[in-house]
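As described in the Methods, two query proteins were run sequentially through the folding procedure within a single session, without resetting any intermediate state between them. The first query and its resulting structure tokens are shown here.
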Amino acid sequence: MPELPETETIARDLDHELSGRRIVGVEVTKPDVLREVDADALARRVLGAAIVRCWRRAKLVVLDLSTGDRLVVQPRFTGALLIDRGRLPDEERRYSTLHIDLDDGSALHYRDIRRLGTVALMSPDRWERYSGALGVEPLDPTFTTGHLSAILRGSRQAVKKVLMDQRLVVGVGNIYANETLWRAGIDPSRAADSVGWEEAERLHEAIVDVLGESIAARGTSFRDYRDASGAKGSFEEQLAAYGRGGLPCRRCGGRLIDTHAVDGRTTVFCARCQR
């Protein structure tokens, strides 16, 4: 967390609010979140640069700068990028690890309570190498049923684990792996290479639909996820599997099983209608 819908929401918010703004100040208060650059080099390379575009790749929020460098933020569990126009609550400021002052008087904070997320500054060449090691975007037209089926046929690991492998398909984490497999009616523990074509069709449709629906709801907020204005997402209300262990299945009425046996992460599924 955040996964694809949450980082997509953050990136869209930032792009709308920050594109064209120029960086006039940088303060790093917790340098342990930095990667590939230290605080002095970060300030030196970004001061005076304009933010050209904010977008998402995988579970990353990417800020393209006029210098060609890219700020690459991986929020992980408790990270958030928050726009501050003078009204950011003190509780959020307390966990700010760095803030970037902009030419309109606003600021961008990277808030991370547990400091498990990262902020990197990458040159164009470095970004191309980094991004090239990541898998296909599930909302890209190149992600077809055939592409997904080929990925699944190439592995004997549990299908849920394959869906969460960022080297194969990006952006799908534990929440949305549970949801898409429930919607497709596939047991998360099944070997990926046992998933037939018709099942792969259902799973492909479920992945695209669930991610799209969550983006429309501005993501899922259980605890720490916030959008760029500090608001929560509402997709939690639509979840059919994740977070519902022990409750009735919304499709067949059977009791949903909650286990850590599949990949060490919380897995919720219906043994009656997921095969």
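Immediately afterward, the second query was submitted; its sequence and tokens are:
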Amino acid sequence: MSLEPGYMALYRSGELERRTRALEARLAECDICPRECRAKRLNGKVGSCHSGALPIVASCCAHHGEEPVLSGTRGSGTIFFGNCNLRCVYCQNHQISQDPEAQQRNEVSTSVLAERMLYLQDALRCHNINLVTPSHFVPQIVRAVLEAVPRGLRLPLVYNTSSYDSLQTLQELDGIISIYLADLRYASNEYGRKYSHVRGYVEVSRAAIREMYRQVGNLVVDAEGIAQKGLIVRHLILPSDIAGSGDSLGWLVREVSLQVAVSIMSQYYPAHKAAGRRYPELARKIIPEEYNEVVSLVKKLGMENGWLQDMASAENYRPNFAVDSPFDDKKGRRR
């Protein structure tokens, strides 16, 4: 049986409207993300995220390439937001995240954003609403949910984030978000500054992931294996262990939960600025030895819930550590 998303009870009690107003008020001197740039976004100014008062929707579609518990058979209803509060030099979606002039034309009202959510639910029949890069648009997203609920919105919301999120903002999302899909990018603040241009990534992201786990706990799926609630942590393997996989995954097991669902991703390639001469350490794909090392680490730590993405450079290399999962890889085939 599907769980009723928590935002429906919050709507009925009036709490969803209260949180919407509280979040919107913070746009006056924006502190929505950890950069706390204090931009007057309600007065036409843009923040360090290059975004103003209106949400920017770069695309909206049924996505079949997410983790199988999200994509299922009908796809995850992804809404890709323009701009980002990170500046990753290797971003594979840099046209969306780091080209604010081009993204300006994708500004929409919160009413249109609500319509997009309902389109994904009713027309495309997606399993969920997947909010991709949402951190700088939380007030606008919550307003759109407030508008969409009386029009029939009932799908779980997925918060698909870099984890560079404000604790205060995340606390306002308690009960609104059903599923957190959170990156764990680095175990080094130096690398966070160098490759994503943010300060304190390690402390911020780890505090955020703890809060996400407090809210939703371990992954819960329905009878068809579709996620209803819980935390999924993504970890992208980077060349030369720039991601600090041992430190990051070890922390996750020690400080969050051994049972937390983890998605180990091997899809890195030198996109955007990483393809040039400035970052030679990032100017290549990962090699099988690096992939195998993380696979061994996952097994050594005793992690059993999650997925291992195929090693792109090793044909038919599809180990799986999710022994209790009905899926054998990220393409979602059932065993």
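Residues 288 and 308 are 13 Å apart (CA to CA). We note this only descriptively and draw no conclusion about the first query from it.
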